[in-house]
């Protein structure tokens, strides 16, 4: 009994290791591009046999082809569907590789089996088994430095789209220091009418304006890492001296303008006062002149009256 269980456990471990190795050795197909699932036969001469070939993905038949006397007499799906086909070197080289016109994004790795069945025989174990993982490159990420929502806090936004599967996002401050995990929030979402993904990651950090922050989007299945960096504002000594000189010049210019404006206002006030005094003097002169004329008229009238009276008395 102990021997039976030991044998069973050993076989189970072998199966587990075989499955693990199969998953680890998956080939990677890029989404939207063609790919070939390799399979080769090195047995009997195929041009003397009647046989059929089936490529399956789980229980789904992807392609079935029947050969009789070295001629293909049947194939499903037909060649005009242009989704999957066998190599042209089936009989010459035993190349039963399956050619897929375009890779579709898959959430998990999938296993494909190829069965070669001779006429009159039952279907046996698959001749070939191929594991396929799919991946697609993300766009180069972009990093934006947003307005700080709190005092001494700055938010950085990293965004990338059009990839598969979900990537891993890493942040670096000044190229060396990783921020605390609690300060990073990342979310992945499927794109509209597509099986590809977009990712957004937010970093909230207490950094100065001179700090450099880098966002990295990593796709391990493609061995691909895309980086984007937000460079801080660097202040050099020359720039500082230039800024100081510019500040002094601006201050002096503002002071000169203020003096000129003040002088112009004072001058305008003095001019207005002079005009007012001139108008007052002119009005007084006219009044005095009018009064003197009236007095002269009265004197003349009085003199004429006196002369008339004197003549009458005479």
Structure description:
There is one protein chain. It contains 3 helices and 16 strands. The longest helix is centred in the C-terminal third of the chain and has 77 residues, at 237-313. The chain is an alpha+beta fold and 314 residues long. Among the domains are: 18-135, Immunoglobulin-like, CATH 2.60.40; 142-230, Immunoglobulins (Immunoglobulin-like), CATH 2.60.40.10. The protein has a 6-stranded mixed β-sheet, with no helix packed on it. The radius of gyration is 50 Å and the shape is rod-shaped. Strand 15 and strand 16 (224-230) form a beta hairpin. 33% of the residues lie in helices and 33% in strands. It has helices at 2-24, 90-93, 237-313, and strands spanning 27-30, 35-37, 51-57, 60-68, 71-76, 84-86, 98-100, 110-118, 128-135, 142-146, 154-163, 168-173, 184-190, 197-205, 213-219, 224-230.
Give a concise summary.
The chain is α+β, with helices and mostly antiparallel strands. The protein has three helices and 16 strands. It is rod-shaped, with a radius of gyration of 50 Å.
